[in-house]
Write a structure and sequence with these properties.
By secondary structure, the chain is of the alpha+beta class. Helix content is 39%, strand content 11%. It has a three-stranded antiparallel sheet with strand order 6-5-7, covered by helices on one side. It has a two-stranded parallel ribbon with strand order 1-2. Helix 6 packs across helix 7 (147-155). It is extended, with a radius of gyration of 25 Å.
Length: 234
């Protein structure tokens, strides 16, 4: 009972043991865990060094990765998202190849800032009011990487060309190169085109379908629909 009370009052556990981590996250029986121990709890870990040579190198390379701002408020976020915010493992979670990450774009045009626009290595959202240049930034980013591909994509959209384009822009990748790479670019009006012409199938349609089918309810409804169509087509 004493141990249970201590667990209930705790926000996190100091442990790198895989069994403890899995128990604390309580996958599959979260409600029962919350009733008994108050919440789902993260496990965090330090080097636990007992001698100088083991400083900054935890046993078994069990490094503790926390996805948050390096502040106390950022650390507190692991209490609310224990599974998504903390990992104890040797390699960095979600680490991507540097040649797949766009680092920045630099415009060479009097209408734009001279400083590079820097991007996050994970998800980047471009937000702003109407007609503030969101779509233009995305378009010029893709155009600087593969101009021919962008022109082909825009032919399938309702609006075949942008009303304004910069003189020149350079995209820098995280590995230091500035060459073109394979990308997927969806013009602003492309989704309108997809809705207006549902029979027309392209590579982007397949990407959108793949994202939607990740939802179990949508996947089940889609499977039932495909089966029904197959029966009616016999």
């Amino acid at each position: 009972q004493t141990r249970r009370n201590l667990y209930k009052q705790s926000n996190a556990f100091l442990s790198a043991n895989d069994r403890t981590v899995n128990w604390a996250l309580a996958k599959g029986h979260e409600e029962q865990q919350i009733r008994e121990f108050g919440s789902i709890k993260p496990c965090i870990w330090g080097s636990d060094a007992h001698e100088y040579r083991k400083m900054f190198c935890p046993d078994g390379n069990k490094h503790c990765w926390v996805k948050a701002e390096p502040t106390f408020e950022g650390l507190m976020q692991i209490v609310y998202e224990p599974e998504a915010r903390v990992r104890i493992q040797s390699n960095q979670p979600g680490e991507k190849d540097s040649h797949q990450i766009i680092d920045s774009i630099t415009f060479i045009d009097d209408n734009f800032q001279l400083e590079p626009v820097v991007f996050n290595e994970s998800l980047t959202c471009i937000i702003g009011g109407k007609s503030t240049g969101k779509s233009l930034l995305l378009r010029q980013l893709a155009y600087a990487i593969d101009s021919q591909y962008v022109k082909e994509q825009e032919k399938t959209a309702l609006s075949s060309r942008t009303s304004f384009a910069v003189n020149s822009a350079t995209v820098k990748w995280r590995d230091g190169t500035t060459g073109g790479r394979k990308i997927v670019y969806i013009p602003q009006t492309y989704l309108n085109k997809t809705i207006d012409n549902p029979e027309e199938s392209t590579a982007i349609n397949q990407i959108i379908e793949g994202v939607l089918l990740q939802e179990s309810d949508i996947k089940a409804a889609h499977s039932a629909h495909v089966e029904t169509v197959a029966i009616l087509s016999r």
